[in-house]
Amino acid sequence: MSVILPAGLPRYALRLVAYEPNGGRLGLLPSPLSFESAAPLNDVSSLRLDYSTHAAGAELLARPCEIALEYLAGGDWVEPPNGRVLRIKRGSDVTDQAGKRSYTCPGYAWQFKKAVLYPTAGMVDGKRQFNAVPVGAVLRTLIDEAKARGALDGMTAEFSSSVDSDGKEWAATLTIALEPGVDLLTLLLNLSDQGVIDWRMRGRELQVFNEGTVMATDRSSGPALVDLWLGRDVDQAPDDATLEDLSSAILIAGENGFTHEIANDPSASPWGRWETYQQQGGVSDAGTAAALGQAALSRAAEERVQITRSVVFDVARWLPWANYAPGDTVLAPGDGGGMEPLRIRQITVSRASDGKLSGNLVLNDRFLEDDIKLARKSAGILAGGVSSGGSGATPAPDSSGRVPAAPPGLIVEPDAYLDAGGYGRGIAVVTWGPVTADVNGVALDVGGYEVYARPNAEGELWYLVAQTASGDVSVSVSSLNVDAEYAFKVRAVGNDGTKGEFSPPVAVLIPNDTTPPPVPSAPTLTTRLGVIHVAWDGLGTGGVPMPIDFERVRVWMQDPLAPGTPAVEVDYLTAAGVVVIPDQPYNEPREVWLTAIDRSGNESQPTAAGVIATVPLVDADLIGEIIDGAEHIIDGTIPGDAKITADSITSRLIRALAIEADKIAANAITADKVAAGSIQASHVSSNAITADKISANAITAAKLAADAINGKTITGSLIRTGTAGQRIVIDPSTLDIRFYPGNSTNYSRLWSSDNDFPGEATFRITSGTNVGRTAQTRMTIAAGWTKLEILNPNNSNPNGGFLESAESYSRIGYDDGGVDSQYMWMDGSGMTTHIGKWWDYASASNTWGIHSGSFVSDEDQIGERVWYGPTMRDNMGPVCTVRDGAGQENFTWCITASNQQYFDVGWSRSGGSSGPLTGKATYWWSFRHNGAS
């Protein structure tokens, strides 16, 4: 590196510049002995510098100052983000004649350690409470208060309480309590670790962005492509990998002895089942434990690889900061050297004592980035406090005794997980601020909180979903329907049991599982007898097992010479196995690849495409010519009955032992080529005839002696009663039996696997589809769980009625994936719950068990007659209530008549009141019963 640059500027250069603390430019540091600068993502940068006291510029380092790293890449000198550091620590050796001094300099953001949260009025339990506010409001509050005290004097912040540094509204809302004394740097690090923000310094200016936006640019494809190639941009590519954290089973231990195990297929681990343990206070339900366990197992399901790539500045096409920055995703050599999208986690640049520049990148592959997101998800489930927001309305308050005030700052963060059957379920983390006063503002201690929820639709009933102690202001609610809206509200309960006012409800949409299965391992392609065989080993890339919600692998094919032609799905596999693609022209290449799809319809990226072509049975230039079998026929391609005239080869033409088993093509010898009685048991060696030596339909009932197959084992990859038309196919590789009632691909199926519940055999029955491919019935039978359901055959999503039973509950109802799903729930508590709505009485039949409805009466009316519509078949028992539209209580009412056609309800003034009767609202239901009217 040269400070005074020659006329021909270097392609890439670095220099150091000194500044006054929070002040102006002092000058260049032209002669460093060496330095190394590290710029990590969402963390404090650093600089290690060696400088001689005899060199020019050494006087600038004799006292505290700031040092800026600048780079040159074909234009002006530029200070990159996180390039400013503080000269606050030095070391030296007085015996060193060269006068070398070493400086360890943290980034400018290190000063945030020196700005702490001060206590203020209105503390709650000794903590500073922020309730349902944007993340920028929390940060600006702490920064502005610190600057008002004289701290952070030179620092500026390029964001506000409402928008981030890119001018975008904050995506995250916080309900959080902070201990006095916590420093701003700790808060920045925690918020970025939890995936709420991305942040960096630009000189002395703090920039904070919504996570995953400005500081997460994808440069791995498209017009902004940055591709770092070995030999051009990268000269060294060390990888450090470990299996130390690998686990195939995790035991979650929660509250009051609650435990829950989540396990993967142990065969995917080189040494079988490896177990781990995770203690999670506050967890007491299987749904929350499943969500935490699945996230933990996903992080521990495979080898962890640290990827470091050394950058070559002299010939590299792409250069640090000029073309990419921490947080960007670039295309670079991954583990094993193949190019793949990798995210930059840290840029390190250095200058050696000989002046040579070097640098390296710490990169995360998509698996490690997914692990980071899973860890954030788990932190959210356990701690709560972050949400993308919601909506709601104000309910009417209760009032009796000293009523606790409504809890402030209610936020709800929804997420999805997979249940034991591999189906998507929802979880919601509900967080609120503590209640410290009654509705009149007088201080009050509360004994705990009650959380209520309901489907977010008019007329739905609220039901209690959780209760907490007084100090707990967050709870997770699990086993919710995905793709459905729920509303939540919370109230405090006084020490005397008095119920407080509810918070305003917050409504959220419970997301479905959006994580696709891993990319399948590449298919193995072979061709024989004019057909293509596609084999899959049942695993994902890198040997990882498929997740519990795996549905099937789709087999795709395309003509590579016609890339504009859409690819065709030719078949699918639900487990390891082989599919056969017939009727392909000879010598025409075909590209074949796989994708995996799960029960939520998420599809993986495709495998690399393999190319194969079927070949003719003889050399192409001999077709139509006389063929010398010994010279021209491709080994093993011609069945004996296809090209050899009957009786043309006799035993005298074949020398003894000349024909061995490997010289006879599969299916070459059929029954009509063998004289009756010529092959006896003594002529056949043990195990010489296996399934692949017998052609389809060659052995019929007439060829078998009575009781010929008795107590024997039949082996083979496929057993079927025919190749077309009505047939049964038994496939041992997938443990299934398929029934084809006609000459089509629409079949019903029986199959079994142990993928759903480790150590158990789960049995399934699947019908064919209807003509419109909108419905298919599936029945799943496991040891402690069974379900009969109507599905959409295109994506396996719910699409109709269902009946589900387990050891602890049973439910029956209707689910089409929408918000109006309904069912009856019965469990071991002895209680029954109905989720859904009741039909209004306007469309009744005479066999309805329950009618329900409501109506409004005008002023001065003294009653209503409610007609059922039809004359009901049995006696009816009406139940109703009447509410005055103006909130008055100057009337009485009762049911005056009831029969199988209608009932009457009437009302009148009471208590000596006068004036017109105001309008009334009547809510009612009526049921058929066997007793007297």
Plain-language structure description:
The protein is mainly beta and 933 residues long. It has 6 helices and 56 strands. Strands 3, 4, 7, 8, 14, 15, 16, 20, 21, 22 and 23 form an 11-stranded mixed β-sheet that branches. Strands 40-41-42-43-44-45-46-47-48-49-50 form an 11-stranded antiparallel β-sheet, with no helix packed on it. Helix 3 (286-299) runs antiparallel to helix 4 (366-383). The protein is flat and about 105 Å long. 28% of the residues are buried. Mean pLDDT is 80; it is low at 1-7, 380-384 and 388-400.
Tell me roughly what share of residues is in helical segments. Answer: under 10%
What is the radius of gyration?
37 Å
**What about the largest sheet?**
11 strands, mixed
Counting DSSP H or I runs of 4 or more residues, the number of helices is 6
- Number-wise, the strands total 56
Q: How is the quaternary structure best described? A: single chain
Shape, please? flat
